Amino acid sequence: MIEARGLTKRYGDLVAVNDVSFEVGSGEVVGFLGPNGAGKTTTMRILTGFVPATDGTAKIAGHDIFEDPLAARRAIGYLPETPPLYPEMDVAHYLTYVARLKDVPRGRRKGAVDRAMERCGLADVRRRVIGSLSKGYRQRVGLAQAIVHDPAVLILDEPTVGLDPIQIREIRGLIAGLADSQEGGTGHTVILSTHILAEVEAICRRVMLINAGRKVLDGPLAELTRDGQRLEDVFTRVTLSDQAEASAGGTAEAAEAAQ
Ligand SMILES: Nc1ncnc2c1ncn2[C@@H]1O[C@H](COP(=O)(O)OP(=O)(O)O)[C@@H](O)[C@H]1O
Ligand SMILES: [Mg+2]
Question: Ligand 1 pocket, 40 CB below 6 A?
Answer without folding.
Answer: yes
